[in-house]
Amino acid sequence: MRRGPGRQSSLDHAGPADPKKTSALENLRGVYAEVDELLAGWTCDSSTDCCRFGVTGREPYPTSVEIAELERAVRARGGLPKRRSLPLLGTAPRGEDERRCALLSDHGKCLVYASRPFGCRTFFCERASGPAGEPARSGPKQEIARLGRAIADLAAQFDPADPGPRPLSRVTAGWGDRAARGGGAQTRRRAR
Predict the structure, then answer these.
(1) Burial 21-41 (b: 16+ CB within 10 A, else e)
(2) What are 4-38's pLDDT values in tens digits?
(3) 115: how many CB neighbours lie within 10 A of its CB?
(4) What are the helix and strand counts (H, E) for the chain?
C-alpha cells in the first residue's frame, strides 16, 4: 500500500480481508519461520543498539507485505504504548540522535517480536555470534539473500504499485499517536 502525504496507514482500519493479501501474509510468516530456523543458535547480548538507528547508522527497510504484517501485529496488541527513555548500553548520546525504534518497549524488548521485519531478524552487530561462537560476518549470507529475494517477490505480489522498501522509522511515524486515540485516521499535533 502506498503511503505519503494524505495517505492512511492500515492501522487506521483493518478493512475486509483480501484473499491474495492474506495468502501473501501467510507466505511471509513461512519465510520468517525459515529465517528463524536458519539462524537458530545465533545470539547477541540484547543491547538493543540495533533498535537505535542513530547508534548503528543502519535501519531496516521493510517491504509492503512486511509493513502490513507489522500493522497487523500492532493492531493485535492494541496499539503502541506511550514511550519513556531506556538506558543506553552503547556509546550514542541519549535523545534524538539515538533514533529509537517505535516498536522497542520501555523494557528493551520488541513489542512485535514475532512479526519483526527481515532486516531485524538478520542484522547482527559485531557482538553477535553463531552456534559455535563464530563471528557474525561468517553467517549464512547466500541463504539470507535467497530469503530476502523471496520476501521481495511476495511484496511485489502483495502490492504491485508499491514504491518499494522504506525506512522503518518513516513507516511507524505516528502509529503511537493514532493508537492512543483509538486508531483515528488523522494525526493531530499536541500543543507543547
Answers:
(1) beebbebbeebbeebeebbee
(2) 433 445 554 455 678 999 999 999 999 999 999 99
(3) 23
(4) 7, 0
* Cβ–Cβ < 8 Å for 135, 65: no
3-state SS, residue 135? strand
| φ and ψ at residue 52, rounded to 5 degrees | -120, 95
Q: Please name which of 51, 37, 146 lies closest in space to residue 90, comparing C-alpha atoms.
A: 51
Asked if the model's pLDDT at residue 72 lies above 60, the reply is: yes
Q: How far apart are CA 12 and CA 185, in angstroms?
A: 5
Q: Which residues contact 74 (CB under 8 A, 6 or more apart)?
A: 11, 80, 103, 111, 112, 175, 179
Rounded Cα distance between 136 and 154, Å, is: 27
Q: How far apart are CA 149 and CA 53, in angstroms?
A: 24
For residues 65 and 148, is the Cβ–Cβ distance under 8 A? no
**What whole-number distance in Å separates Cα of residue 29 and Cα of residue 35?**
10
- One-letter amino acid at 77 equals R
Average pLDDT over residues 97-118: 92
Q: Scanning the structure block, which residue is given the C-alpha cell 522503518? A: 168
**What pLDDT digit, counting tens, does each position of 137-177 carry?**
888 999 999 999 999 999 999 999 999 999 999 999 878 65
